[in-house]
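Exercise 3.2. Students should predict the tertiary structure of the chain below and write it as structure tokens, then compare their answer with the key that follows.

Predict this chain's 3D structure.
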Amino acid sequence: MKLRWGIISAGKISQDFCAALQLLSKEDHEIIAIAARSLDDAKGLGLQYSVKYCYSDYKEVAQNPEVDAVYIGSINTTHYELARMMLEHGKPVLCEKPLCLNLKQTEALCEFAKKKKVFLMEALWVRLFPAMLHLRKELDNKTVGEVSQVIVSFGVQIQHVERVKKKQLGGGATLDIGIYCAQLASFAYGSETPLKIVTTGHLNEFGVDESSTSVLTYSGNRTATLIMSTKVDLPNEGLIIGDKGTIKVPFRFWCPTAIVTPDKRYDFPLPPSDHKFSFVA
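Answer key:
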């Protein structure tokens, strides 16, 4: 049965999502509705994919009975409100990261989804790459023994981007790119909650973090070091270190196409596309 998608926002990340859907079977997925603050923007993106409905009001997507599921790609500060709106109307939601701006919002939204018995997922795409599925096997097979250290960095020069530098837009290194670092530590340690988190860094003139280093302490003398920056380019790789060696998730670990174990490199190339994606490189 074909899944008919409603798209919230016509910005770059939504454009990438729409393009990625084209790599899947048209018998399984269809973009049926797009809403943006500007109707022209919605129509512009909709024209590329022969979208049936284009709106300037997000609620129109929520109320459209032909929409089976909704992808939310709007700015961070709108995620909670828009996701709740869609859930209220019984629409399963795939919401771009960060799901919400803080713990209070996140817990409230998850509880609301449970109450409504409607699917809600943060669109943390990295977890669904074939390379990550292979990494899970390597960790489960104890390829590097008992893991006691994770070191991951993500740094790109995006400090001048409005949505990154402004607090009122939900900016900051942690919310924009740091979430990828945190998820790798969580992935390596089986979603265990750290016992302690110590962070140091710098804020910009708008009061949001532009660089930081966090050390997460787990039970059993295990740690994770997360380094993130919107000011400089970092190695952008992840290291998962055990008592029998190291597994590396190479450059662009947030869009992983390879896993390197002590004995072998495993490659997982992305499918070809004519679309130039904004958030891969």
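Discussion points: The chain has a mean pLDDT of 95. The longest helix spans residues 173-188.
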